[in-house]
Amino acid sequence: GPARLLGPPPYLPGLEELWSPWALLLCLTWLGLQAALYLLPARKVAEGQELKDKSRLRYPINGFQALVLTALLVGLGVSAGLPLSALPEMLLPLAFAATLTAFIFSLLLYLKALLAPASALAPGGNSGNLIYDFFLGRELNPRICSFDFKYFCELRPGLIGWVLINLALLIQEAELRGSPSLAMWLVNGFQLLYVGDALWYEEAVLTTMDIIHDGFGFMLAFGDLAWVPFTYSLQAQFLLYHPQPLGWPLASFICLINAVGYYIFRGANSQKNTFRKNPSDPRVAGELGFLGAMSEMGQLDFQGSPHPAMCLSPDLETISTATGRRLLVSGWWGMVRHPNYLGDLIMALAWSLPCGVFHLLPYFYFLYFTALLVHREDRDERQCRQKYGLAWHEYCRRVPYRIVPYVY
Ligand SMILES: NC(=O)C1=CN([C@@H]2O[C@H](COP(=O)(O)OP(=O)(O)OC[C@H]3O[C@@H](n4cnc5c(N)ncnc54)[C@H](OP(=O)(O)O)[C@@H]3O)[C@@H](O)[C@H]2O)C=CC1
Ligand SMILES: CC(C)CCC[C@@H](C)[C@H]1CC=C2C3=C(CC[C@@]21C)[C@@]1(C)CC[C@H](O)C(C)(C)[C@@H]1CC3
């Protein structure tokens, strides 16, 4: 039937449609497969940020390898008769099974945290209020031997699950209508690029606040395992039931929007990561200038300095902070204070446009994501203000807009 916003839904699924033991089995098999791929030898083992007890945890960088191996296994399965196009019919019980799994998993994590030493607990999530702590997560990096649950869940099962659901929807559309629509190809292609990128640059996740700061509780477990695969695939789900005519000229324009978004997103994230890893990398720093180079060599200590020191370089300009780390104030990070969010939002728009402009549902991701990034930006801003003090004020003065130039 037509997608509509006003009026009650014509049909609501009964509770019995939510529960299927097969869906739970499939969900657990998927987690088991991804866990097995996580344990395979990795091209690199990276060290995380320094912890409270001065130690660093080690993480395997093999997420992209897991994506490729999953694609090979699914390809083999489909050619051997695996009915992937049956997946779209199971989405509701699968989403329920994933939510149930996240819930039980978070309960176990809560219990595990009771045995953890105080140094292993997250800064938030230890208020003593059972529900609040269960939701936010008590332990920072819950592990069994070297298997890190939060790092494992953050990317692989959810992101790879998302593109697998998209693929199943594309195959089912081909079976229903003879071939997949152009709109379905675009949505699949754009989102595969996004997921491939996240897994290729997996190491960058080690410096996100989710890994460094947040405990692992129900919010993150549910977000990673259930929310991401089942709501991020809404555009492809919409297209299966509401085919949209899309010509090549408009499709090319949407591709251009996605390319611009990706260019900003990747450019900004890579610029910051390169700079953080090696501030004197010629791609970001050119020549550092005296103050920058001295602080880099530990010759200058800005601790307690009332004014942030300024460092000019021919390529990118930076400001020094009391912590010894510097902040980029030109390049992408001189345009707005969160250029990566801007690129991400432009891409989110490009994922919705192939679905036309007459329905709100395909724009759900764009709207939710705007709210998520505004909230995330606010949290990050508070943390940076605390961490960098005066230097952050100076950065805000030099770069007044947060996400969208001249707007916000
Ligand atoms: N699709 C999705 O659902 C989601 C996608 N994302 C995406 O993930 C990516 C990562 O986002 P997120 O983890 O929120 O954080 P960011 O990558 O934006 O990192 C913020 C940190 O960068 C450093 N920083 C800020 N300004 C500067 C500067 N001028 N120069 C140098 N360093 C600076 C600070 O840390 P420090 O100084 O300590 O290095 C700050 O805490 C983004 O592209 C975002 O869009 C995020 C959440 C959800
Ligand atoms: C309504 C829900 C309870 C809200 C859940 C929020 C989560 C969906 C997000 C919190 C942080 C996320 C990140 C990504 C996906 C969404 C969640 C889990 C991310 C893996 C997406 C891809 C990016 O490149 C990234 C930097 C790897 C992201 C990390 C944070």
UniProtKB/TrEMBL annotation:
InterPro entries (alphabetical): ERG24_DHCR-like, Sterol_reductase_CS
Can the keyword Transmembrane be found in this entry's annotation?
yes
Domain of life from the UniProt record? Eukaryota
What are the recorded Gene Ontology BP terms?
Answer: cholesterol biosynthetic process
User: Is Transmembrane helix given among the entry's keywords?
Assistant: yes
Q: How does it sit in the membrane?
A: Multi-pass membrane protein
- E.C. designation(s): 1.3.1.70
What's in the keyword line of the UniProt record? Answer: Cholesterol biosynthesis, Cholesterol metabolism, Endoplasmic reticulum, Lipid biosynthesis, Lipid metabolism, Membrane, Oxidoreductase, Signal, Steroid biosynthesis, Steroid metabolism, Sterol biosynthesis, Sterol metabolism, Transmembrane, Transmembrane helix
Please name the pathway: Steroid biosynthesis; cholesterol biosynthesis
Q: What class of enzyme is it?
A: oxidoreductase
Transmembrane segment boundaries: 19-40, 61-84, 90-111, 216-234, 246-265, 345-366
Q: Which catalysed reactions does the entry list for this protein?
A: 4,4-dimethyl-5alpha-cholesta-8,24-dien-3beta-ol + NADP(+) = 4,4-dimethyl-5alpha-cholesta-8,14,24-trien-3beta-ol + NADPH + H(+); 4,4-dimethyl-8,14-cholestadien-3beta-ol + NADPH + H(+) = 4,4-dimethyl-5alpha-cholest-8-en-3beta-ol + NADP(+); 5alpha-cholest-8,14-dien-3beta-ol + NADPH + H(+) = 5alpha-cholest-8-en-3beta-ol + NADP(+)
One GO cellular component from the entry? endoplasmic reticulum membrane
What are the GO MF terms of this UniProt record?
Answer: Delta14-sterol reductase activity
Subcellular location(s): the record lists:
Endoplasmic reticulum membrane; Membrane; Microsome membrane
* Gene3D superfamilies recorded: 1.20.120.1630
- Name any one Pfam family assigned in the record: ERG4_ERG24
Give the family per the record.
Belongs to the ERG4/ERG24 family.
Biological function? Catalyzes the reduction of the C14-unsaturated bond of lanosterol, as part of the metabolic pathway leading to cholesterol biosynthesis.
| Protein name per Swiss-Prot or TrEMBL | Delta(14)-sterol reductase TM7SF2
Source organism per UniProt: Bos mutus (wild yak)
> From which lineage does this chain's organism come?
Eukaryota, Metazoa, Chordata, Craniata, Vertebrata
